[in-house]
Amino acid sequence: MADFAEIWSYLEHGPLLWLSATLIAYLIGDAISRASGRRPFANPVLIAMVLLAGMLWATQTPYATYFEGAQFVHFMLGPATIALAVPLYHNLGRLRQSALPLIAALVAGSVVAMVSAVGIGWALGLNSETLVSLVPKSATSPVALGVSETIGGSPTLTAVLVILTGIIGAMAAMPLLNLLRVRDVRARGFAMGVVAGGIGTARAFQVNETAGAFAGIGMGLNAILTAVLAPTVAGWMF
Fold this sequence. Notes:
Elements: H1 2-11, H2 15-35, H3 44-59, H4 63-75, H5 77-82, H6 85-90, H7 92-97, H8 99-123, H9 128-134, H10 141-150, H11 155-179, H12 185-207, H13 209-237
Helix pairs in contact: 2-3, 2-4, 8-9, 8-12, 8-13, 10-11, 10-13, 11-12, 12-13
C-alpha cells in the first residue's frame, strides 16, 4: 500500500494521468450513450462528469491538480469555437432564406436566457456576484468566461453554470420540442445551439446532421450576441 501511495503521488501530479482519465471517462460515457440508443438522459458529458468527480473524491485529489493535467482539453475550447465558422459557411444559403426568423429567435432566446436566469436567481435570494455570473450561462464556455470576468462575475462559477445549462438543455430540449410539435430540424437545432451551447450542439448532431449544423450556427451567433448584450443587461439589472 505504501508503494502504491508513492506511485499515485507521483502520477497525480503528471499531466498525462488526468488528461487520459478525462478522455477515458468521456469514451465510457459515449459508449453508454450509444448502448442506450442515444437517449437524452444518457448524456456522455454528464456520465463523464460523474465518473471524474467520483475519481477525484475517492483519491482526495484537489480540482486544481486535476485541471493542471487536463487543461489541454480546456485549451481546445478556443479552436473548437472558431471551428463554428465551418457550418456557418456551408449553410449560408439556408441562412439567407431564413434570416428574419433566425434573427428574431436568436434575440428572443438570448435575452430570455439571460433575464430569466437572473430573475429566478434573484427570487431565490442569490447574492449579486452569483447573479452576474448567471448572465452569460447560455453562451459557449470561452465567451461566457470572458464575459463573466468583464461584468464582474465569477468565471469559475460561470463555467459550472455553462456546463449545467448544456447538460440540462441537451437532456430536456428535444423532448420539449417534441411536446411543442416543432418538427423543422433547422428550428430544433438552432434552438438547441442557442440555449444549450456546445453540449446541446453535440446532442443535435447525434440526432440529425442538419440540426447539428444549425445548432452550431445558433451557438456561434448567441456567443456573439451575448458578448454584446451581457454588459448592458448586467448594467441594467444591477
